[in-house]
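Teaching assistant's notes for section 4

Start the section by putting this record on the projector. Ask students to predict, before seeing the second block, whether DNA helicase RecQ will look compact or extended. Collect guesses on the board.
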Amino acid sequence: MSTIESHIKKSKSLSEFFNTTANTQPVPTRELNTVDSSAVTYGSAQQVLKQVFGYDAFRDGQEAVISASLSGQDTMVLLPTGGGKSLCYQIPSLLLDKVTIVVTPLLSLMKDQVDQLLELGIPAGFVNSQQTREQQMQVMNQLQHNEIKILYVSPERLLQYQFMEHIRFCGVGLFAIDEAHCLSHWGHDFRQDYLRLNCIKPQFPDVPIMALTATADRATRYDIAAQLQLQSPFVHTGSFDRPNLRYTIEEKFKPLSQLMMFLKSQTDQSGIVYCSSRARVDDITDKLANKGYRVAAYHAGYDTAHRNHVQEQFQRDNIQIVVATVAFGMGINKPNIRFVVHYDLPKTIESYYQETGRAGRDGLPAECLLFFDSGDVPRVKRLIADNPNEDRVKVETQRFNAMVALADAQTCRRQVLLNYFNEYSEEACGNCDICLDPPKSFDATVAAQQALSCIYRCEQRVGIGHIIDVLRGSHNSRVKDLGHDQLSTFAIGKSQSHEFWMSIIRQLIHRGFVEQDISRNSQLLLTDKARPILKGEIALMLAEPRIGRKVYDDKPLVVNYDKRLYARLKSLRKSLAEEHDVPPFVVFSDATLTEMASRLPINPRQLLAISGVGETKLARYGDAFIQVITRHLES
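Reveal the predicted structure now:
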C-alpha cells in the first residue's frame, strides 16, 4: 500500500490530507446525488446524448472527438462559444469508469456548470477558494467514494501537491483543459499559471487530455499542443461562423444616445454592454438605471460578493443588462443573452469574437453592436507600446491592427472575421451592417479641402471637436478666444451636421491625410499626402457618412410559434427555477420553450421529442409543462 493510500485509509476525514483556508464568504454547494455513479451505465455516446441531454443528433465533429477521447487519444477541440464544447467531455465522463477533471480559470462557471449537470442527474462537483474547508472536504470525500463523475478545478488547485496525489489515488479517466488558449504566449488571454499544466502528461502519461478553446489562431493552436505535450492529438476545428449573430459596427458620434436608441429595440431582453474603463461602466450604469432599466455594474473594483451577486441575478433574469469591463463574461453560461454592445473598441479580434459570442448561445438571433471611434486607435497603440516586452508589443500591435481593419472594413464583417481565423468564405453573410446597408461612396474632394484647410488655418493645434465647431460656425468661447471665428473657414460647413464632419475627418485620418498627435491632446496634423488634395490636383472619393441608420430594429426573434403560450411557459420556468434554486435556463433553454410553443407537445412521448428534453428533465418537469400546454390549448 502506497504512503498516500495508507494516509487516506487511516484518516477519519481528509482534513489532514487536504488542508486549505476557509473563505469568509463561501459559495453554497448544492448536495450531490449520494449514489454510486459507477452503477449508472449507458450503452453508447448516442444513448447518453438522447437520454441525459435530450438531443437527437451530435453537432458536427462532436462524435468524432468523443470517440477519440474514449479510445485514449489526446484531443484538441476548437469550437465557437455555444458550439457544444462541453458535451465533448461531459459525455465521455459518463462512459468512463474514472473521474473527469475539468480545469478552468472561471470560478463562476464551475458552479453554473455543476448546477446544470446536477439538474440532468449527473454527479458533479467543484473545488475552489470560495468554498469553506468543510465544503471542500465533502467534495473530496465524494470523489474518493466514486460519487462524482465530473470535477471542476482551477489550474492553481490542480497543481497543489496534495490535490494531485489525491486524484492520482482515486484515478482519473480524462483531463479537460478549458479556455486552453490561456496557456499560449500567443493567446489573447495568456495566464502564467496555465504554463504549469505541462506537468499533467508526465505525471499521468496514460490519461488522455482534451484541450478546448473558442479562440485560437494557427500559432496559438500549435503552442497549445506543445505546452500540454499532446501525443498525436485528434484535432477538430469547427466553423467559427455564428450565423444567428448580426454584426453591426457604428461610427461613434454620440455613443450614449446611440446606446439608448439601440436598447429601445431590445425590450426586456438580456444583454451585456462592454466598456474600456471602470469609470465609464459606473457612469453608464447610473444613466441606464435612471432610465428605468434593470441594470448592474461589474468590474474588478467591486468585491467578490458584489460581483457574484450581479452574475447570479443576471443568470436568473432578475437583471436585464450588465455593464462591465472585460472582467465579466468569460465562460458565462447563460444561453439567452440577446445582445452584446461594445461601447469601446476591443484590442483583439479574439476578444471581440469571444465577447460577442456570449450572445445567442441558444441558437436564436442576437445582436452584436460595436461603436468605433478612430480617435481611440493611437491611444490604444500608445498603451500597447508601453509594454517593455518587445515581442509582446509586436504581437499585440499586429492583433490590434487586425481589429481596426475589421472596424474599418467596407466588405462583409463576417467574411473579415472568419478569414482572420483561417476560415475563408467567398459568400457575403447577409446578416451584418455592410450586407444589409452597403456603403456608398461620393466625391468628397470639396468637403476634404474644407476640412484640411480648416486644420491648416487653425495652425494644426486643435483636435477634431474644435475643427468641427469652426467648420459649422460655432460661437463658443474657445473658438472666440482663439480668434478662429475670424478665419476664412469659419462656418463654411454649416450646412452639414456634426456627425457628417466627424465621419469625413475620421476617414481622412484612416486614409493617411491627417494624423492625430496623442502626445499633444490629439491635435490634428496634416501629412504630405494632404497637399495634392488641397491644391485640387486629385479627386477624393470617401464613404458616404452613415448617420442615423438602424439595421437592428426590424427583425423578429423567431417566427411561427405561439407567443402567448411562450410567455406562459417562461412564467412556469421561472417559478420552477426559483423552487429548485437554479437559473431559468437550467430548467429549459429559450430555444426549447420556443420549440414547445411551436410543436405543442401534450404527452410525455411528444415532449421527449423536443430538443433539450432528456429523461431526467422529463421526469422532473414534464407534467408541469404538459399541463400548461394542455390548458392553453383548451382555453
